[in-house]
Amino acid sequence: MKFGPKIIKLKDGRECILRSPVPRDAKALIEHMKGTSNETLYMARYPEEITITIEEEKRYLKELESNPKNVLICATIDGKIIACGGLNCVKNLMKYIHRAEFGISIQKEYWHLGIGSSLLSELILLAKDAGYEQIELEVMCDNERGIGLYKKCGFEMIGTREKAFKFKDGTYGDEYLMFRKL
Question: Residue limits of the N-acetyltransferase domain (predicted)?
């Protein structure tokens, strides 16, 4: 599914463009994924686990253009990708196609500017347009900023998964399961 471009005004007065990434963005997207995974433990992967090639990312972005149920939105400032938000079907099976899941990544330098709220608002609208009936997510229990954003956007906690993450140092992190009807 294609999105945008759409211009949003950030809390610091700068303009940010939300748009679907295109194949020429592949390298920048991979760098973004690695960078945000290095900045916080709240991401699902460590940077070294992001092994997708530029060609694989280009193919993925090309496939997204014609997919009516999945979307990726990147946020750019002065042409630089600084955040992404993606919406996907939980599973492409008849019993699951009413359920969407999403993820957001924002470079730390751009936290607290309203980008997460803007991305999530757009993803919720796109999920409705795509015919989804609910959106689900998992968030680490100590990610207070993320939990606050999700609650603000109408998500409810529906459970906890203990030891959902195992870190390199051998410690664990629990996660909340959150849900929003559309």
Answer: 28-182
Q: In the chain, what are the domains?
A: 6-133 (3.40.630.30)
Residue 176 CA to residue 149 CA, distance in Å, equals 14
- CA–CA separation, 163 and 9 (whole Å): 38
Q: Which pLDDT score, from 0 to 100, does residue 55 have?
A: 98
Cis peptide before 23 (omega within 30 of 0): no
- pLDDT band of 61, cuts 50, 70, 90: very high
- The CB density around residue 172, as the number of other CB atoms within 10 Å, is 10
For residue 85, the SS3 value is strand
In this predicted model, what pLDDT tens digit does every residue of 95-153 receive, in sequence order? 999 999 999 999 999 999 999 999 999 999 999 999 999 999 999 999 999 999 999 99
Determine phi and psi for 44, rounding to 5 degrees. -70, -25
Compute the chain's Rg from CA coordinates. Answer: 16
Two structure tokens written together for 69 = 């149920």
